Amino acid sequence: MQTDIDPRSLIGRKAFDRNGSKLGTVDEVYLDDATGVPEWAAIRTGLFSRDAFVPLEPSELVEGTLHVPYERSLIKDAPDFGVGRHLSPEQELQLYHHYGISLTDDTPPPSDHDFGHIAGD
Known about the structure:
It holds the Pfam family PRC. This is PRC-barrel domain containing protein. Residues 101-121 are annotated as: Disordered. The protein is of the alpha+beta class. It has one domain: Photosynthetic Reaction Center, Chain H, domain 2. The protein has two helices and seven strands. The protein is globular.
C-alpha cells in the first residue's frame, strides 16, 4: 500500500477486487499499533450486507479507488468480526490465514489490547 496516504482519506472510497469487480465502499481503516501503518480495510459489501476485512498490503490506490489483489469470493468469505472495535491478535491471525498471508517470522502479534485500532481513534 502507498504509505504516504492518510488512512482516513480511504474511508468512503470505492473498492474493487483483482478482476475489477466492485466490492463496495471502504467503511473503516485499521492501523497496526506498533507501526501506525494502515493494515486492514473494512469494506461495506452492500446495502444490507456486512463489512469484510481486506488486507491493505499490497493493495493500490488507483485514480481515487482502492484495488485489492484478491477475488471477490475470497473477500466475501472472510471471517466476520464486526466493525468499530479493535481486532484482537487472534482475529488478525485468522484473517492472515484466510488470505494466505504468512507472517514474516513465527512470532504471533503482540498481545496488545489496542492492536488493530481504527484510524482516527
